[in-house]
Amino acid sequence: MIYEMVRKKKIPFFRIGSRIFFRKDDLEMMIKKQVQNNVNQG
User: Fold this and answer.
1) The pTM is what?
2) 17, 20, 31, 36 — which has fewest CB within 10 A?
3) Could you cite one Gene Ontology molecular function of this protein (predicted)?
4) Cβ–Cβ under 8 Å, residues 21 and 14
């Protein structure tokens, strides 16, 4: 599932060579935005 999200560019990541890395701050920000969107919608 994670690699699918990376492939579709739906999760923040960066590459060094062929390796994929995630910044904790970027992931936390993405989650906060999704939670806020869900709260605003319902």
Assistant:
1) 0.76
2) 17
3) DNA binding
4) yes
SS3 1: coil
* Token code pair at residue 22: 């995630």
Cα gap 13→20, rounded to integer Å: 7
All residues at 6 or more sequence positions from 39 whose CB lies less than 8 Å from its CB, including other chains: none
User: 21: which strand partners?
Assistant: 14
Q: Residue 11 carries which DSSP code? A: S
Q: Which two tokens stand for residue 6?
A: 């990376």
Residue with tokens 């993405």: 30
